[in-house]
Write a structure and sequence with these properties.
395 residues; globular; 9-stranded antiparallel β-sheet; 29 strands; 47% strand; single chain
Length: 395
């Protein structure tokens, strides 16, 4: 059995920037030289720089002998320093701010949105924010303030929903990214709810926004889905209305939200159905199309496109009879700069991909577009044909 030799492990100082510690042995290992005075520490006495989230190293003094006992002492010290370092990681972002720019401070701010009357109840949205402040100028005001947390409060002040947001890192006196949120009453023909819009910068040109709808169930205001992310925007708020309204979908009952989803060449309009009773937001259509490869979840959706005529005075496209390769012989149709082109519809798979953070609304890579060119109708889907009719790939 190993004889214990560690008598005292003393933490002399710890103030967030460095530590000093000592090991006092019960007796020196056999063969070790005399250590001087009785209370003179042997083996280890070292100051080690410690930063939150940073790695910490242990440097033995020359008098530390390689032995099992010494290895145990080093192991205990390593565990202690790891615990101290891990504790500092909870304030990593703030500590990083203090190290980079001690003159920059973080302020806590809050504001309320509302009240919003939904199903006879008054709800408010509490936004808690973090703002950078200091004597120096901030590089970009968009990166000075970020959302820290969000709460939806009922008429009695009870919390119906709350969401925390991670504090981003700070660089050069600015947050590296910021999050913002707004709230609007959403009015439908069969119900009403609360529409939250989140924005994040930096982002892609058509990204950065997400949406979340809340409805009342059992006198509680609950989310109908997780936040919805997409490359595009919400059609229902396109006119900047203070109270956005739900829309309708032909041949389908119920309140709808329509989203414009970017395909790479044009937008397709995807309808989502609001089920107020079940508390659910989901794709309005469950589609099945029989193809040469069997049934596939392909839907026909509306199109929004802006044509930019090609530089050539004349080119051509291959117009297919159906939105499928190998079905009939495509016709070669001439396209001129002054050709009259109409965008009629699109066929694609609508993809609803959900994870723990939200829902990604996208479409399949191979989108078919139905067009009318100088009176001739058909389907196209290749990038060469999109380019020929003035819809080059972008984004």
């Amino acid at each position: 059995m190993m004889t214990p030799f560690l008598k005292t492990l003393r933490l002399d100082r710890f103030h967030g920037r460095g530590i000093a510690f000592s090991i006092w042995p019960l007796s020196a290992p056999a063969g070790a030289p005399a250590c001087g005075p009785r209370r003179q520490p042997w083996g280890i006495k070292e100051k080690v720089a410690a930063s939150p989230g940073g790695a910490t190293s242990i440097h033995p003094l020359p008098s530390l002998y390689a032995s099992r006992r010494n290895a145990l002492a080093a192991l205990l010290l390593s565990l202690l320093l790891s615990l101290i370092s891990a504790a500092g990681m909870t304030e990593r972002a703030i500590a990083g701010l203090q190290q980079q720019a001690p003159s920059v401070q973080i302020e806590d701010l809050a504001n309320r949105l509302g009240p919003f009357e939904i199903s006879g109840q008054q709800f408010t949205v509490l936004l808690r924010r973090k703002r950078l402040s200091g004597p120096g100028s901030v590089v970009d005001p968009d990166f000075q303030e970020t959302l820290d947390s969000l709460e939806i409060l009922g008429p009695d002040g009870a919390i119906h929903h709350e969401q925390a947001f991670p504090l981003p890192e700070v660089s050069g006196g600015s947050f590296v990214e910021t999050t913002h949120a707004s709230a609007q009453l959403l009015q439908g023909s069969q119900g009403s709810g609360l529409l939250l819009t989140y924005g994040m910068v930096p982002s892609t040109p058509l990204g950065g926004l997400s949406w979340q709808v809340f409805g009342v169930r059992g006198r509680r205001l609950l989310p109908l889905s997780k936040p919805l992310f997409l490359e595009g925007d919400l059609v229902n708020t396109g006119d900047g209305a203070q109270v956005p309204r739900t829309s309708e979908e032909p041949n389908l009952q119920g309140d709808m939200l329509h989203f414009r989803v970017w395909t790479g060449n044009f937008f397709v309009v995807v309808p989502l159905k609001l089920d107020w009773l079940q508390g659910k937001l989901a794709p309005a259509w469950q589609c099945r199309k029989m193809t040469a490869r069997g049934p596939r979840p392909i839907c026909q959706v509306r199109v929004q496109a802006q044509r930019t005529p090609a530089e050539e005075d004349m080119t051509f496209v291959r117009l297919h009879q159906e939105a499928e390769e190998g079905f009939g012989t495509p016709a070669h149709v001439v396209v001129r700069k002054d050709s009259e082109i109409e965008f009629l519809a699109a066929e694609t798979e609508v993809i609803w991909a959900e994870d723990e953070n939200g829902v990604a609304l996208t479409v399949s890579d191979d989108v078919w577009l139905k067009v009318r060119i100088d009176g001739k109708e058909g389907w196209i889907h290749s990038q060469d044909d999109f380019q020929a009719i003035g819809l080059p790939q972008a984004g």
